[in-house]
Prior knowledge:
CATH superfamily of the largest domain: NAD(P)-binding Rossmann-like Domain
Order of helices and strands: EHEHEHEEHEHEHEHHEHHH
CATH class of the largest domain: Alpha Beta
Largest sheet: 7 strands, parallel
Number of domains: 2
Structural class: alpha/beta
Helix content: 40-55%
Low-confidence stretches: none
Number of helices: 11
Strand order of the largest sheet: 3-2-1-4-6-7-9
Strand content: 5-15%
Number of strands: 9
Shape: globular
Distance between the termini: 66 Å
Amino acid sequence: MSKVWFVTGSSRGLGRQFVEAALSRGDRVAATARTTTGLEDLVATYGDAVLPLPLDVTDRDAVFATVRRAVEHFGRLDVIVNNAGYAQIGAVEELTERELRDQMETNLFGAVWVVQAALPHLRRQRAGHIIQLSSAAGVIAMPLGGAYHASKWALEGLNEALAAEVAGFGVKVTIIEPGGFATRDGKNPDPLANGHMAQPDPAYAELRRRLGAVAGKQPAGDPAAAARALLKLVDSDNPPLRVLFGLGFYPMLQQVYADRLKTWADWQDLAAEAQGDLAHEAR
């Protein structure tokens, strides 16, 4: 049975690949982006199966109106892909209030507006699948990525809570955590070259130099392969809450989680001390 998709950030990168993969197998897609000028070829190829819609996800009213238009056009929604987002790069000390707020407005609040707009329709259907594009940056953190990490870590917690809230309505939630993918001229994007950059402070020049020597050098995944993997996810009867796309960060994630568990274990005496003995105090 064909599915109806609603995809944000669909004009390029992984979002574009997701849209093409869905259309190529006979699904229908409401493809949204800040500008739809890059989607004309899909309309020429797939006709009424694709509905290009201009959308700035930071505009809550526009999000609700766009979701309504997609439902009116296709009659239902089955797969919601929150893909729109960008990376703000800069040391925490360098970030302006505007840069941090803009990062959260797009990556976090934009995703929330889409979920809130789509959920009444999914609940009424008693079915649907919300796909949240997070990142390996949603479970680990590196220097100069504080704003981006903050937005992705927030999305991880939000969607974990969401999954428990909507499971009883037959709605599934999956958080995808991609590593690097060749979304720019067949190469893994270098965030220090392609991200939104804060005004650099000379105090962090050496850190930037060291990170710049390794940034974007990890093996790049194939976006088309990621799109095929997404199709398997949305067709699964029991999809995972979280899944990595790509293997590059898996060893690092294993070490990070092992280190966290060890640190908590090593400091259990202090944890117990911090709790105090309320029962004793009550006596």
